[in-house]
Replication restart protein PriA (Dechloromonas hankyongensis), 660 residues
Amino acid sequence: MPVLRVALDLPLHRLFDYVAESATPADVGRRVRVPFGRGEKLGVIVDVADASDWPVDQLKAAGEILDDLPPLPRDFFGLCEFASTYYQAAFGEVVMQALPAGLKRLDPPDRRNGRAAKLPAALPPPELTGEQAVAVAAVDPAAGFAAHLLHGVTGSGKTEVYLRLIAKTLAAGRQVLLLVPEINLTPQLEGRVRARFPDCGVVSLHSELAEAARERNWRAAFSGEASIVLGTRLAIFTPLPRLGLIVVDEEHDASFKQQDGMRYSARDVAVFRANQLKIPVVLGSATPSLESWANAQTKRYRMLTLRERANPEATLPTVKLLDTRRMVLTEGVSAPLVAAIQARLERGEQSLVFLNRRGYAPVLACPACGWVSRCKRCAANLVLHLADRRLRCHHCGFEHHIPKACPTCGNQDIHPFGRGTQRLETWLHEQFPEARILRVDRDSVKSRKQWEAVLERIHGGEADILVGTQMLAKGHDFPKLTLVGVLGADSALFAADWRAPERLFAQLMQVAGRAGRAELKGEVLIQTQYPDHPLFASLVAHDYPGFAAGQLQEREQAGFPPYAFQAMLRAEAPEMADAIVFLKAAAALPVIGEHDSVLIYDPVPMKMARLANLERGQLLAESHSRPALQAFLPRWREAIESLKAPSRLRWHIEVDPLEF
Ligand SMILES: Nc1ncnc2c1ncn2[C@@H]1O[C@H](COP(=O)(O)OP(=O)(O)OP(=O)(O)O)[C@@H](O)[C@H]1O
Ligand SMILES: [Zn+2]
């Protein structure tokens, strides 16, 4: 009797066997209903075998095998196998998370067909610049696997390179997967892709799609009917029968890293997948991650460079530092910045004031007794939001009304401390009463619709001053924007996290890159008390390579990634002591002694030690060898699984952690 080996959505590192009289090898890759416990589950058939490790007469019989979809292909299982092994995730969970919800349900609802979206008119493509042409020619969809790092300064026309590569790939009859960090922030890109390829079937895949739309798009991608798939990180697991090119836009962006469930990097999985399918992958950014940059330096990735802005009228903006030690600030803003904004108003140009902190003020405080608004559930302050008069935790969502007096001493004179975008907006309104000011952050722009409306206002010239967080820094092209002012950058300059300089540099270079993208010359003014910091020197010189070289040298000396390979074991529990005891036990497991080249550090509380009433600790495992770490991790994970832990303790392993 044929035995089905079935992947189920369970955190267990094994398959489940069932018997099925009429099953054939052609059923591999199909979904199947199987009895499980007292109920039923939907799984995916990974193998049809003649035997089982279990006595066959004790196996239960599988239920219906669904054939509404073609079977999932072998390379899809190969991809899931890789992700499961590399990230220490259960194979069944990896397989099932790749499917849209509607295909995982035992009783899927009926689906109507959606209407086709209206297409914008196709524009004739611009003539490529010399650098763009070189980059386009360097990527050959027919030449097998190659990983390319497309390093192009802001406004250098990376998108046009992607579009030409997409055209080449489509001409060869293949599909393209274009990954973007956050689909909501990239309606411009989506519009450009649809306009350029109106007849090719472009579908998007991201978690904010309604369930039915996501399933429809997924099916179109899987059937090969859609030739271009535009998606966020989860789209990397979509089975695509004719895939010929993967592009990862803004490859440095942290959104490519999934931070819960299976903690994977879609960028890294993309490189694996391209290698598996023998196709090219292009990672694009003005500020590549140092991992990718190092790979390009060692020639594992091929470097493609765009040094100039694509628009022949545009040049890179001038970056100047405003030394605030010698300036009087009003509400955190210096006189030269005010004057620069004023000058833009007079010329009818746009300004952007960047402050990467939303809310009115980061904390409410009592000067009499020292009380500060803390979250009851997290090791964090409650942020003051005056717009809707709330105190709000940006980590767990806890909310509270604003107290009229200090809850500890009764003092009526409590103050907001520090400033966020709301406070800056309020002050700018007072300072420039005639200006049209638009605040853009996650409080003012919550949905894609709102975001599209905001973009329309900016492009329509209906805003003079933009105030915003990093939402405004990513990939936008606002031709009338000629001034970018940066506030509050210093707080990240001396952060304990050794990745902080990389993030800060990328953020500042990206936001600076919004200025002067058309014929109007751009200017960037950065307020700082540390104008001599080397990070700023690289920024002023638009010198990403210089900055990267310095950072990589420091990391090599300190033995940090990419010169070491890391995995983090994290445990969370109501009491920190429980988490630490568990981590100590994990650090003392005998299996560690069998892996000399893996170093286990001491357990420590996480930087944000409490989140939503759970105390969190972590334990770092590190090796100078990736294979050594990978050989160690499954054995360590199995040993940890057999440790006794308090019932409310949860743990996970994160490979290549970004946050500490
Ligand atoms: N070959 C070209 N000739 C003229 N203009 C071009 C050309 N290629 C691109 N552009 C224009 O240059 C501008 C910048 O292009 P694009 O937005 O693709 O840059 P980018 O490299 O993605 O920038 P960023 O990293 O800042 O998002 C756009 O307005 C685009 O239409
Ligand atoms: Zn909280």
